[in-house]
């Protein structure tokens, strides 16, 4: 089982930095490549570019909770929530097909 994790592509966990404009300020966000892939997918599913999605998310967090203490951790958590919801949707679709 560890081979699944230990043998993964190093690009999954190599850091990638991207410059993003948040509230008019250019900032650099550094995340593992796999998280960027998920964020790209989330953004596309919502009809945004990745920078546009991240900016919108940042604005919404600021409105709801004020400045996040660790925005990159929030992004990682958002990716996990997205993947968890995607898996739950797939499981529900499978159950419905099996019941038919």
Shape: globular
The name CATH uses for the topology is Ribbon-helix-helix fold
Structural class call reads: alpha+beta
CA-atom Rg in angstroms: 16 Å
- The order of strands across the largest sheet is 1-2
Helix % is 55-70%
Name the beta content range.
Answer: 15-25%
Q: DSSP helix count?
A: 4
Secondary-structure element pattern, one letter each: HEEHHH
DSSP summary, beta strand count: 2
Unreliable stretches (pLDDT < 50, length at least 5) are: none
CATH architecture: Orthogonal Bundle
pLDDT averaged over residues: 94
The fourth-level CATH homologous superfamily is protein bp1543
Largest sheet: 2 strands, antiparallel
Distance between the termini: 34 Å
Give the number of domains: 1
Q: Quickly name the level 1 CATH class.
A: Mainly Alpha
Name the descriptors:
two-stranded antiparallel sheet; 2 strands; single chain; Ribbon-helix-helix fold; 100 residues; alpha+beta
Structural summary, described in words:
The protein is of the alpha+beta class. The protein has a single domain, classed as Ribbon-helix-helix fold (Orthogonal Bundle). It contains four helices and two strands. Strands 1-2 form a two-stranded antiparallel ribbon. A hairpin with a 2-residue loop joins strand 1 (15-22) and strand 2 (25-32). The mean pLDDT is 94.
SSE topology sketch:
Layout: H1 2-6, E1 15-22, E2 25-32, H2 33-45, H3 50-65, H4 71-99
Antiparallel strand pairs: 1-2
């Amino acid at each position: 089982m560890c081979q699944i994790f230990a043998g993964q592509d190093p690009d999954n966990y190599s850091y990638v930095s991207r410059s993003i404009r948040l509230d008019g300020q250019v900032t650099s966000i550094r995340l593992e490549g796999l998280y960027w892939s998920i964020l790209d997918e989330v953004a596309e599913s919502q009809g945004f570019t990745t920078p546009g999605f991240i900016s919108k998310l940042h604005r919404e967090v600021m409105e709801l909770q004020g400045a996040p203490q660790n925005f990159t951790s929030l992004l990682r958590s958002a990716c996990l929530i997205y993947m968890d919801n995607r898996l739950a949707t797939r499981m529900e679709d499978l159950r419905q097909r099996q019941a038919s």
